[in-house]
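Side project, low priority. Logging it here so it doesn't get lost.
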Amino acid sequence: MTDDSPFAALGNTRDTGEVEAQVGEIILAFAPGHDLQRVADAFALLDRAFDGELPGYQKLKTLYHNRTHTNEVVLCTARMLHGLHLAGQGLDADHIDAALIGALMHDVGYLMSDDEASGTGAQFTESHVLRGVDFTRTHLVWLPPDLLEATTRVILLTDHRKHPGWVKFDNLQQQRAAYATATADLIGQMANREYLERVLLLYFEFEEAQMGGFADIHDLLEKTTAFYRMTKGRLDQDLLGLSTHLARHFGQQTGAQRNFYQESIERNLDYLEQVVNTERKQRLNRLKRGGVVEKLRGMKDPD
């Protein structure tokens, strides 16, 4: 890893097995006796659900809110938990699990049942958080009742259209678990090396959901910097600035007291400025990562 490549520190979030292993290593490094079985069971359930192997459900079809996004959120959540531990705000075993399982299940509401015949699931953008809570209550009944309740509150806080005050917590541990995961949901996606390309996919989800109010993909690209400024306010104020603790994690893990997530986000925003200052018909030629543009051009001409 070099100073000019903060993305390298964030790891490969396409490989679910690698992400699960990293999550386990991070947790066991600061909580050596932690039993990871409940988290492993949640990973396995999500594998089946997203792959279309869970009875009653179709394979996950949404373009942006996919397994890679879930992976980046749960991995960032583990790092958040480590950072909180180093800051003297660590969680007990049940709330570590609530944060991680909540991260895994936070977008499961985009899954479509066998009875939902049309669309990709993006049509449920507005209701996906509550759908995810329903899924969790139905399919994670093996969790102890208090842990299941804490997990659902973690999921509820990932509805970023609402002020965190809409979720009522029973105790400080429950609140920290939810704030850690909600922070990771925002930080993880915007720090992804392919975030700008994936924003193009998000446009089509918004279009299907009939929300967002963007004229076209260029309009969304042009407004992404403003979205980040709004998101930064939520991170720093509504979510109490917990993202700063990520530097503690990387300081112990890599020896570099740096927040590689924030550095990666800044890289993305700097490049975004170059893209939006390019003539529209040439912009997509500058978004080359992940084969996203090629995929979109295969669906319809996004230019």
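Brief comment: The CA atoms of residues 109 and 129 lie 6 Å apart.
Revisit when time allows.
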